[in-house]
Amino acid sequence: MSSYFCINWILLILFAGPTVSRSIVKGKVGQNITVPCSYQVKGPGDITSMCWGRGSCPASKCYRTIIWTDGWKVTEQYSSRYMLEGNLLKGDVSLTIVNAKEADSGTYCCRVEISGWFNDQTSNHEVVIEAARISTASPHTYTSEQTSASFAITKDGSTNESSFAITRTWPSVSASETSQTATGPSSSASDYSDVTTNVQNMSVSLPHQQYSENGLYIGIGLCAVLLSILTLALFLT
């Protein structure tokens, strides 16, 4: 009976395996991401080998190994983008992913090999690499130019046509702001029309004012001539 329980206990350990801890590490594309992992080192005798692999920790070793260390130094390295920058002699075996990419997202296994049956320290880490946000706003500006004409009346009765340009500049907007502007009421067109009308009215009123001033000068001259004639007549009489 005792042998039966021993066999069941061994089978349970083999199939269940050691307890595996889990954690989630998030980062952005282009950053250096550190996935934490460590074990207790009280003396040189506690320093041991370990490995990092892609995917969940298997029953032994690491699946799709990316880095190995004998406890003192790195002995196997799949890519220079995977590094152990912690103090290995103090049990810091955290994995650093240099210049992270979206393809680096996934599960990583940290296995520390401890002597004895089923004593390995294992931990699974879920790494999530998010893409950097891209701004949709454009630094460029757009201008709209409209030319209006005005007429001036000269002394000889002919007209001279002159023109002037009004330029307005609008800052660029994103796609969402453009859609909102298209659906909502717009007052820029009416404001622009009012400005153009005021300028045209001002340009037309200027020739009339000049014409009135010329008539005033002519009237003053005629009065001066008549006054001179009357003075001369009185003098002669």
TrEMBL record:
Keywords: Disulfide bond, Glycoprotein, Immunoglobulin domain, Membrane, Signal, Transmembrane, Transmembrane helix. Residues 1-21 form the signal peptide. Residues 18-130 form the Ig-like domain. PROSITE patterns: IG_LIKE (PS50835). GO terms for biological process: apoptotic cell clearance; cytoskeletal rearrangement involved in phagocytosis, engulfment. The chain crosses the membrane at residues 215-236. SMART domains: IG. It is a single-pass type I membrane protein. Its main location: membrane. Belongs to the immunoglobulin superfamily. TIM family. This is Ig-like domain-containing protein. It comes from Apaloderma vittatum (Bar-tailed trogon).
